[in-house]
Amino acid sequence: MTTKKSFTKLIICLLLILALFPIGYATTLYAADDDKEKIEFSIEDLINQNGEGSENSQELTSGLGLNLNFESNSKDGWTIPNFAGTEIVQAGVGDFTSEDGIFTYGGESITGVSIGTDGTEGNKFGLVFYLNDKGIAGIESPELTIPAHAYYVLTFNVKVAELGNSGTNYGINAKLVNQATGDVIAMNAIKTESEDYVTYAFLIQGNEFSETKVKLQLLFGNAVETDGVTTKSEQIGYAAVDTIRLFSVTYEQFINLTEDDNAKQVSYLTQNSNYVFIDNGYFNITENQNWNIDNYTTLSDLRPLNWAQSQAGGETDWGIINTNKTIFETIIKNLGLSATNPKNADGSSIENSNNNVLMLTNLNGHQTITSSEIVLTKNKYYEIQFKFNTQATKDQTNPLSFYIVDSNDRTIYSKENVFSYVEYSENSNEWATFHAFIKIDGTDKKVNFIIEFGTEENPTTGVVFIDDVRLITKSSASAVFVNNEENKYLLKAEEGQTEAEYLPTGAITFDDLLNLDQTSETNRNLVAFTYDVPEETPTDDPEEDKDDDETPAADPSIAWYIVPSILLAVALIAGIVLYYVKKIKIKKPRKKSKNQYDRNKTLNKQVEKREREQKALEKQNLDAQLEQVRSEIKSLEEKYESSKKAKTNMKDLKAYLAKRQKLQNKEATLLEQIEKLSK
User: Fold this and answer.
1) Which residues of 507-519 are buried (b: 16+ CB within 10 A; e: fewer)?
2) Going along 509-580, which residue ranges are E strands?
3) CA nearest 337: which of 354, 361, 320, 318?
4) What is the value of pTM for the model shown?
5) How many angstroms separate the CA atoms of 289 and 250, rounded?
6) Which of 152, 174, 199, 151 is closest to 48 using CA atoms?
């Protein structure tokens, strides 16, 4: 009886703790979330940062030469928009400082309408939309030019003073019209009456290739024309628009402004700028680093979005450049660079076409370019493909290397010193396409694609170009590649054969590609491999292993919220166990006979078997890598021995020795790893 009473008291106490203790911490938990700082950048912030006398102003309004503030008391340059079969009353210009609200409207002087200024210093005149009867009032701006790659913000202040037609209640409708295509992007109708002016903005992303001409259209009421038929939404009342301004902003500011409820995003990109799974694989979308797009001084002013660069020594630059003949020559001259136009990989003319490519430049330097994360789904086949142009001069051959690195920073595949040309000739200017075919095992993978130009041991001076990095999902292994050129890719010769077999023209299977002769120069731009490396492989550095196993510190507010529940559960279990231990007499186990089944031994054998299989799998992968490295060493030596020019050129000798040493180091590392697995 005493035991039961003690147990009951223990339960009651713990329930009281649970009821009272966590609630205070639960409040703290949610309060902590509410108190987190949020990165915000509003239209108001943009305007305030670019006020009178501000340094490095981003405002472009005064340089446009357009009548956007109406302080001349005129509508010069503005016109009445046209809609089929619909009369549009033109907006007027009002003196908002007049006590009588005097303004000119349709040739008449209107009085008795009070609007007031928007508070901008020195501001007096603005646009007025005034309708005594049902109708539509409107006006359209002069042309605005949006440069390629630009991130622009067009702001304007609106005051809806009176809406008499509550049935439609459309207020002010603001639209951006593409002059070349006639496409219209409209802001949500501004239809709430207000005592003060409210600032609105269009967030405009320029085309990836060329400038865009647009006009700002403002309507009181609304009109939409489709196939020559106009749908009208008429209005009664009056409203004002004033202080129209244009700003050039950074990509980060542009993205932050999309969170402002009074902003409308507009994109003039003309095509899909991403390949599936690899963001911005066309290198069309930029992370603009310069407010004045016409005066950028480095390639880095047009960095590609979703790609990252790192450098080690020397001078490097990277960014997007257009192969259009006029644009390319202008930019190269402005930047003071020496480079030959790589032209277009598809053979199209550079005289009248536009194509963006990634350009890397080194001056005795070394840099790497890394893609965003790529997700590879288990039990599927993929192809990573990219185009490259390694321009050569008398002094530099400018090879590239590329790597596929997993989420644990393990290199699952590498290809070093890749050239776009088959044989070197001075001023070589050729595009080539690299294909890497990958079979994924039973686990999803996350990888990054890395391009390296130069190395820390051998920095380079020169330029290379990259384009069209893409990831293609293959539906099956039966036709992962289509060989359109007969006798192009060489297979390994089987034992007893006098000459190598060739891949046939047409559909090629993944297993065929696994038999490629990687020592052949013909196959330099094609590889196939199976990604079956275990997710967790111990490193040789115990400290590194320790870091990988550490669990991030938990939020203390969450911990204190959960702790009481855990304590209660532990106490309940302990109480129940204590109670029943006293009630039940536990029998001493019998001594196990020799023939009795031992489950632990069976489990241990299963574990040992899995470990052996895992080691065998790792060793198989390492053996394959070792074979490839030794083939590369053999091919390198044969190529050097057969080159009379290389033997007489000290620079070529040094390059050969450095590359051979690097391969031999890799060979030694693989042998060491294989030896560890064999123990």
Assistant:
1) ebbbebbbebbbb
2) 526-531
3) 361
4) 0.70
5) 6
6) 199
